[in-house]
Amino acid sequence: MSSDQSLPANHLQILLASRPEGRPGAENFCSREATVPSPGEGEVLVRNVYLSVDPAMRGWMSDRKSYIEPVQIDDVMRGLTVGVVVGSTVDELPVGTRVSGPLGWQEYAVTTPDQLQALPPGQPLRLFLGPLGMTGLTAYFGLLDIGQPKEGETVVVSGAAGAVGSVVGQIAKLKGCRVVGIAGTPEKCAWLRELGFDAAIDYKVDDVPAALREHCPRGIDIYFDNVGGEILDACLAQLRRGARIPLCGAISQYNEADVRGPSNYLSILVNRARMEGFIVFDYAKRYGEALQELGRWVAEGKIDARFDVVDGLENAPEALNRLFDGANTGKQIVQIGPEPT
Ligand code: NDP
Question: Is the CB of 136 within 6 Å of ligand 1?
Fold first, then answer.
């Protein structure tokens, strides 16, 4: 086996301690020091550098039927990470290879190659949790496959200054659409205008229905829904005939015991519209094609990405709540350890 000689004996893991009711709190997690494992035959040891912090984590903490099994109590909390191979018995993944995978809230993990994606050199590691990672792919397939934007159409995206939303808006601009973003602070709205959005609505101070009427005078062709709740209802009320609604997420509902459905849903009928839910993992076979195009847009400066970095794995529970507080601009990540040199 080849290995990095400077490995510590122990490492930090964060486990799910209990299931939250409402907003997750520190009491729902616990930490432990575990022995850094050694890779067996056909395995690699990865040092995690960044943890992706995702709204979906709130769902994984609940014992509810979903697209994936809940995290079990006392298990390491689930999460996507990017990191570097520091021990290996696999020729194709030698020490020093940069990888991404579902390695969880811990500093080190042993895993098998089928769980990992080797990352190409030359790009900052964090990009593979943003536009060149799961959130970029979500924006890409949700907008292009389900939304099917056409030049000149009006696209509205909520959660617009977040990881998925900011990429949705920029791709929609590349496709020649008029793009209106909805976000929760004046600073976020200013950033959206810098990114080239045609208008930005601050849903915490603006009258959303009136602002949508003003900025979408011909109605909404595509509403990319990241938040659900009242914003979904306001957008439904202003659909154009033949509108498409990629249902990506509903963060306004994730901490609620009773999920609130849209009351304006008859607008879908009247406007012959289509609302379709999707899970990015179902597109796994097509990641390659999407990453080529996303990679080109990023390299050409056509997609800009911001990262909100919380330092230290021990602060991951706090980082999760930044999503529900709207404290993050761009992709929320936790830095677990130093970038490889
Ligand atoms: P973001 O980076 O967008 O962070 C979440 C943002 O949601 C916050 O910054 C906040 O911004 C906004 N928000 C929080 N609470 C509310 C609320 N009550 N009403 C309106 N906005 C709120 O997260 P992601 O980009 O990672 O995820 C965006 C959505 O995409 C989520 O719903 C997530 O579950 C979903 N998703 C779905 C996937 C799929 O396969 N279907 C895959 C990945 C993500 P603000 O200041 O604007 O309020």
Answer: no
